[in-house]
Amino acid sequence: MPPQIPNHVRSRIVTLHTEGMSNTAIKQKLDGEGQNVHRTGILRVIRRFKTTGTTNDRARSGRPKKCSPVIETLIDKLLQENDELTSPDLQREILTETGLRISLTTIKTTRRKIGWVCTGTKYCQLIRKPNMRERLVFALNCLSTNETFERVIFSDECPIELNQHALLTFRKEGDTSRRKLKPKAKHPVKVHVWAGISTEGATPIHIFKGIMDSEFYIKNILQETLLPFVQEHFPDGNYRFLQDNDPKHKSRLAMEFISSNNIPYWETPPESPDMNPIENIWHELKHFLRKVINYLCYNINEFSF
């Protein structure tokens, strides 16, 4: 079946024809206007206009639509209530509520017609209701105090694999001299990086392997990395320290150390959104390792900042 010619294009064809233009000239004119219409279609529009005095399509025979506006409304209502309903599910629901058996093809067509499309499911963090209230209070407090997050030390740790991460490679067509396979370590070196950032600069970076516990966190991070930075950049103590709610960060030993050393810890609600801007640093760091350091690093001693 030839493609349907839009009504405004049909009217344009009739106008050009009444101005005395030939079918070939009409086609050239429409092509220049960005309307790709075959000469046969132009001829068909002109013939219909001469015969009927209009460019509208003739009435077609066929059975009436089974999906009435009532069924369309029902499908829309069902999907509003449960957006995971499949076509067979909708078919069963429609049969139960109306007694009508509608084909799956018709249901799919109707669903698409009223604006429902199938997409991949996106997930978000499951938040408990008490924590929702705490998050709201925290956000409203930031708004009421015109919080600008100045003089805040944003801290975090990130696991990083030192490995080959080339996503794309290029070679000349037909050139077999360049190997298409790149070596990749079976067990790449994996390290953890802790750092903090603030308006007064960045803390030293602490690189370590293995699992961090609360004792390691207190000695190597808080005592040996954070406090010297604070003494140098915030000697007046006018700052706030922000960390996530990881158990080792919130352990009794860690909180006692924070309290005894007068570290102004800025507590955030449980299940808070990850608003830490240092996440952007981790992204850039991994991008640097992937795009700039293009060799395999089998020994952590080979890697240096």
UniProtKB/TrEMBL annotation:
SUPFAM superfamilies: Homeodomain-like (SSF46689). Keywords: Paired box. The keyword Manganese does not apply. Residues 151-291 form the Tc1-like transposase DDE domain. It comes from the Eukaryota. Residues 5-97 form the Paired domain. GO terms for biological process: regulation of DNA-templated transcription. One of its GO terms (molecular function) is DNA binding. The keyword GTP-binding does not apply. This is Transposable element Tcb1 transposase. It comes from Holothuria leucospilota (Black long sea cucumber). The lineage of its organism: Eukaryota, Metazoa, Echinodermata, Eleutherozoa, Echinozoa.
